[in-house]
Amino acid sequence: MKKIITALVVLFLIGGAVYILNNNKAKNAEETAIVAQKSATVSVRTQKATLQKTDTQYKVNGNFLPEHEVIVSAETPGRITQIFVKEGQKVTQGQILARVNIDQINVQLQNATSAYATAKADAARFESAYDTGGVTKQQLDQVQMMLKNAEANLNSAKITASNANVKAPINGIINKKHIEIGTFVGPGVPMFDIVNVQRLKLRVNVDESHVATLTEGDIIKIKASVLPNIDFQGKVTFIAPKADATLNYPVDLLVENNNEKAKLRAGMYGSAYFDASADQDTPLLLIPRNAFVGSVSSNTVFIAKNGKAIETKVVAGRNFGDLVEVLDGLKAGETIITSGQINLSDNSPITIID
Question: Is 274 exposed, middle or buried (0-12, 13-18, 19+ CB in 10 A)?
Fold first, then answer.
């Protein structure tokens, strides 16, 4: 009897264990399905496209560069014997800046002068002899060729001697002096940096929507960061025919630097302000720049709709800092995805997070 009772108890315990295991298995399967369903969605952040009024004046930043800048290098090898200028000094084109030791150069010039004089006398003597039949035409030609070579050597020696005086190729200011008296220089060795800052260039990068309205000769308002209360005028002198890697176009604005009370200096930070559009009081449909897939030039965004990401092509307009104007393909009030696009494709299920 005890054995029967014990067997029944064991069967009861086994049955209970099997029931609990099956129940837990079903519960785990249900939880796994829920987790799998959640993990199949992509977490994103969103924002609504809105109509906004904004300052449509287009501003781009850049640095002031000298209109002319040259590095004066040595053309004749030798040791520097004299320096006639110092850093910060104004110089004019053709002014002598330094002199290279010309003792050896003078010797070469004297030798070339003597050789030329001898060749000239020989040529005159052979010409007279040829007229009387004392020399042949071949001998006369050889002497005349020697005269031409001697003349070429003399001219070369004169040029070398003149290069011993290092001269300024442009008007400007000595920005840097690379040499001292006693320095030995060779051809191509930098000696002076000269910059002309009477006129400066502000190099800025302009996007395609604004560069299309620019022409050479346009006058653009410019401000320098260190002189915020003074307006400068820049003349468009160059518009790049090809965009750079960021799909912007380099543009040069020439600025007259003749304000004695507010001198600009090369390397200063400046901003160019392009005219605002006539309809600047009209609200614009604006979305964040980071809503675009990849970059603004892709003209692709995702709209959040019914729990899915809908890939949408738009037409991007002007840039206003972190905001971009949308001209077509999007309506005010539509929810755009601003984060998580890298994991999305068209109709991907999404989960919106705060």
Answer: buried
Distance CA 73, CA 98 (A): 11
Amino acid at 304: A
Q: How far apart are the C-alpha atoms of 116 and 269, rounded to whole Å?
A: 59
Q: Which CATH architecture has domain 59-66+196-274?
A: Beta Barrel (2.40)
- List pLDDT tens digits, range 280-324: 567 889 999 999 998 888 899 999 999 999 999 999 887 777 888
Euclidean distance between CA atoms 234 and 33, whole angstroms? 66
In the chain, where does the domain assigned CATH 2.40.30.170 lie? 59-66+196-274
Residue 290 CA, distance from chain mean position: 23
Q: Where are the beta strands (DSSP E) in 180-239?
A: 184-185, 190-207, 219-224, 227-239
CA dihedral defined by 49, 54, 58, 63, rounded to 10 degrees? -100
Q: Please state, in angstroms and rounded to a whole number, the distance separating the CA atoms of residues 55 and 351.
A: 35
Distance CA 199, CA 67 (A): 6
Q: What is the CATH number of domain 73-190?
A: 1.10.287.470
- Please state whether beta strands 165-167 and 96-100 pair in parallel, antiparallel, or not at all (unpaired): antiparallel
* Strand-by-strand arrangement of the 50-52 sheet: 50-52, 284-288, 323-328, 315-320
| Residue 261: pLDDT band with limits 50, 70, 90 | low
Q: In the numeric block, which tokens belong to residue 133?
A: 């039949």
- Rounded Cα distance between 317 and 296, Å, is 9
User: Which pTM was predicted?
Assistant: 0.55
Residues 6+ apart with CB under 8 A from 181: 80, 81, 82, 83
Q: What is the pLDDT of residue 328?
A: 92
**Domain 283-352 is of which CATH architecture?**
Beta Barrel (2.40)
The whole-number pLDDT of residue 304 equals 93
The pair of three-digit structure tokens given for residue 234, joined into one six-digit string: 């820049």
